[in-house]
Specification:
163 residues, Aminopeptidase, globular, alpha+beta, seven-stranded mixed β-sheet
Length: 163
């Protein structure tokens, strides 16, 4: 498995992975059409300090993570999804995706990262805490943070801070 910057040849596979996890595994009422960022990943994420990475195993997209530059040396972690077959500490897929994002954020001199997620992603909450994120109240998000309609839990991390 390798983590690489997004390539347009993987666009359909990224969309399929994200939507299948959102809808199929977690029953979220969200469609592909409600996620225009996934239809133009370079145009949406590769602005300022932003970027998008994928985990690829045997030619198959098994994970995604994105960094959206929201200004003021702050970023929003978005679209972190890992196929169920490669989840957990043994596979290390999520950790490797996050490491790629954190390394990029450090090189780009970002100060802070924020993320929003749903109540249902309990394992993700544990993962974020283990990797140095702290839960915060929605009122503590920066004004430029893009809250999704499914977001109910929010996390923050200082870039460069040890977990």
């Amino acid at each position: 498995m390798e983590v690489i910057p997004f390539e347009p040849t993987y666009a359909g596979a990224v969309l399929d992975l994200v939507v299948s996890i959102q809808r199929g595994e977690f029953g979220l009422d969200i469609t592909s059409a409600q996620q225009p960022d996934l239809h133009d990943i370079p145009g949406f994420y590769r602005n300022g300090c932003g970027d998008f990475w994928i985990a690829v195993e045997d030619g198959r997209v098994v994970g995604t993570i994105a960094l959206l530059d929201i200004g003021d040396r702050q970023g929003a972690l978005r679209k972190m999804f890992v196929h169920r077959d490669v989840r957990g500490p043994a596979a290390g897929t999520a950790s490797r995706l996050l490491e790629a994002l954190l390394a990029h954020a450090g090189r780009a001199a970002l100060r802070e990262l924020f993320l929003g997620t749903t109540e249902r992603f309990v394992a993700a909450h544990r993962f974020y805490r283990k990797h140095g994120f702290s839960e915060i109240d929605r009122r503590d998000l920066p004004p430029a943070f893009p809250v999704m309609h499914v977001d109910t839990r929010f996390f923050h991390r200082v870039v460069g801070a040890a977990p």
